Each structure stands twice: as structure tokens, then as C-alpha cells.
């Protein structure tokens, strides 16, 4: 099952990685634990040690028809589970 | 390959908007590489996840009293690079004339394959005059197992220097003279990373 995560501003990458691990998933992110998961890393393209396999953080293929189960993460708390990924 | 699926942002005119391939497509495009703080205040990012897999890691650390040896070692790494990319290795290195560190890992290979790939490089490093070499290979059960050891010791990574980067095309590395490329890289700067 392909999960997706929404990280609100303030969530740092080490928290993002922990959230992904709880669901036995890997996520493409920054090296430094203090970098924000919704921020400059992505705006700079999103380089990662796993990017040769899974693409840069900024990778997005233009055509998609799927919806995914979504987990929303705020700094310090997980506020939701299994929301549908919104597509408008 | 997908990673980011959607971004929410407060734009300069004060609107809190959703940017994705269907809404505000121009903003979504610009945000993905346009630089921090350029287009507004990003309030969230939505990312796809990938299967959690074991990661096979190779580590090489060299202290050098011989700059030629350091350069020769870089040439060997350049020679190996097309094969490393093929096998899915990603990683980072820091290179100065007297010090050299290389950390590479791949989710697509076994411990045995990593040993076979890197043994010739480790042996080459050990054979060069003036190099004191440490090397190892190890398998981590997933990304977090590696990340926890490498990055969550309380120290922040990074340095107070201004950086720049190039994405180098594959054919640059498929050269018959990797030593020439190594020499050029050393000419550009005495302090660089190689990913």
C-alpha cells in the first residue's frame, strides 16, 4: 500500500523519517535532522542519498489517477490517519 | 517517479492556496526547485512513500600526506561511478587534498555484491603511497537504522560556507581518462563533495 504523508511547516526530517518507519515505509528527504520537511530542501530540488533510486524530492510525474491513504503530521503530534489524499 | 505530490503555500497576496498538478500548476512547478522563500511561505508538503528496504553501505575514509595519491583515488572512484549509478548507489563524500571520505549506499544490492564492488577500490586505496585508509561495508535493515546512527547524534550537519552544485551527465563519467577528470575537479576547488 502506498502511503502518502503531509508534513506541516515545523516538522523536521528526523520526525518525518520516524513517522515513515512506524508505517514500514521509506521517504525521500534531507540528511540533516533539523531541516524542515516542508521547506527549503524541497524548494532546492530535494537531493537525497536515495534519490538515485527514487528521484529527487521535487520529482512529480504529470499524469496521475490514483488516490492514496494520507497521514497528516504536525510538529510534535500526529493528528490523523488514513485520510484520503485530497484531489481537487 | 513521484515524491512531492502537493504543496500548500501562503502567497505574497496573502492567499493560502494548494499547489499540485491540477491546481496552481505554475506555482507547483516553480516551487519544485525555485529556491527557498521565493514564492511565498510554504505551510505543508505532501510526499509519496516507498517500500522500506535493507540498505547496503560502503564506507571509505582516507587521511593523505600525498595529494597525488588522493587524486589517483578520486580517478578510481570516477572509473567506478557509472557502475555504482547502475547499481543504485547514492551517497556523499567530502574531499580535500589531505582528507577523503566516501559513504555510499544502495537498496538494490546484497552485502556480498557491495563487498565485491568495493574491494578493488579499497585495495587500490591501500596500495597508494601516503594514504592511511579505513574502510568497511555493512547492511542496515532499513533507512531509519542507518539514519539513526549517521545523523541523530545531536549534531547538525552542514558548514558555514556557501555552496554550489552541478548535476553532471553520465557521459562525463564514461571517459577513457578518469584521471583527467579527477585533475580538473581538483583544479576547480580544493574542497568539494562528490555525490
Describe this structure in words.
The complex is a heterodimer of chains A (88) and B (195). Chain A is 20% helix and 19% strand. Chain A has 88 residues and is of the alpha+beta class. In chain A, strands 1, 3, 4 and 5 form a 4-stranded mixed sheet that branches. The longest helix of chain A is centred in the N-terminal third of the chain and has 10 residues, at 13-22. In chain A, 45% of the residues are buried. With 195 residues, chain B is of the alpha+beta class. Chain B is 35% helix and 30% strand. Chain B contains 6 helices and 9 strands; from the N terminus they run ββαβββαββαβαααβ. Chain B has helices at 25-31, 67-86, 111-127, 143-151, 170-173, 178-188; strands at 4-10, 16-19, 41-48, 50-51, 55-64, 90-96, 99-106, 131-140, 191-192. In chain B, the strands form 2 sheets. A 5-stranded antiparallel sheet of chain B has the order 8-5-7-6-9. Chain B has a 3-stranded antiparallel sheet with strand order 2-1-3, covered by helices on one side. The two termini of chain B are 20 Å apart. At the A-B interface, strand 1, helix 1, strand 2, helix 2 and helix 3 of A face strand 1, strand 3, strand 4, strand 6 and helix 4 of B. Strand 2 of chain A pairs antiparallel with strand 4 of chain B.
* Principal-axis shape of chain A: globular
Q: How many distinct folded domains of chain A?
A: 1
At CATH level 2, the architecture of the largest domain in chain B is 2-Layer Sandwich
Terminal CA distance of chain A: 22 Å
Structural domain tally of chain B: 2
- Which structural class do you get from the secondary structure elements of chain A? alpha+beta
Query: Percent of residues of chain A in helical segments?
Result: 10-25%
The largest β sheet of chain A comes out as: 4 strands, mixed
Give average pLDDT of chain B, whole number.
89
The string of secondary-structure elements of chain A, in order, is: EHEHHEEE
**According to CATH, what is the topology of the largest domain in chain B?**
Alpha-Beta Plaits
Order of helices and strands of chain B: EEHEEEHEEHEHHHE
Radius of gyration of chain B: 20 Å
Rg over alpha carbons of chain A: 13 Å
Low-confidence stretches of chain B: none
- Helix/strand structural class of chain B: alpha+beta
Amino acid at each position: 500500500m502506498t502511503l502518502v504523508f503531509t508534513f506541516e511547516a515545523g516538522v523536521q526530517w528526523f520526525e518525518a523519517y520516524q513517522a515513515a518507519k512506524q508505517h514500514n515505509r521509506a521517504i525521500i528527504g534531507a540528511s540533516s535532522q533539523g531541516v524542515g520537511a516542508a521547506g527549503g530542501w524541497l524548494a532546492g530540488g530535494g537531493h537525497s542519498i536515495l534519490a538515485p533510486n527514487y528521484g529527487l524530492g521535487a520529482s512529480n510525474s504529470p499524469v496521475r489517477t490514483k488516490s492514496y491513504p494520507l497521514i497528516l503530521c504536525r510538529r510534535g503530534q500526529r493528528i490523523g490517519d488514513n485520510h484520503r489524499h485530497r484531489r481537487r | 517517479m513521484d515524491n512531492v505530490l502537493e504543496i500548500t503555500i501562503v502567497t505574497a497576496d496573502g492567499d493560502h492556496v494548494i499547489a499540485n498538478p491540477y491546481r496552481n500548476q505554475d506555482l507547483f512547478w516553480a516551487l519544485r526547485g525555485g529556491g527557498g522563500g521565493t514564492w511565498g511561505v510554504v505551510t505543508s508538503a505532501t510526499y509519496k512513500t516507498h517500500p522500506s528496504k535493507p540498505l547496503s553501505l560502503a564506507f571509505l575514509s582516507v587521511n593523505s600526506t600525498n595529494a597525488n595519491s588522493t587524486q589517483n583515488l578520486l580517478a578510481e572512484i570516477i572509473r567506478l561511478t557509472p557502475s555504482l549509478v547502475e547499481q543504485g548507489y547514492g551517497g556523499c563524500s567530502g574531499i580535500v587534498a589531505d582528507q577523503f571520505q566516501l559513504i555510499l549506499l544502495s537498496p538494490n544490492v546484497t552485502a556480498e555484491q557491495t563487498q565485491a564492488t568495493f574491494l578493488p577500490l579499497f585495495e587500490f586505496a591501500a596500495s597508494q603511497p601516503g594514504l592511511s585508509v579505513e574502510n568497511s561495508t555493512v547492511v542496515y535493515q532499513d533507512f531509519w537504522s542507518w539514519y539513526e546512527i549517521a545523523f541523530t547524534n545531536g549534531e547538525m550537519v552542514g558548514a558555514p560556507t556557501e555552496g554550489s552544485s552541478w548535476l553532471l551527465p553520465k557521459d562525463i563519467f564514461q571517459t577513457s581518462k578518469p584521471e583527467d577528470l579527477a585533475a580538473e575537479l581538483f583544479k576547480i576547488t580544493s574542497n568539494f563533495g562528490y555525490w
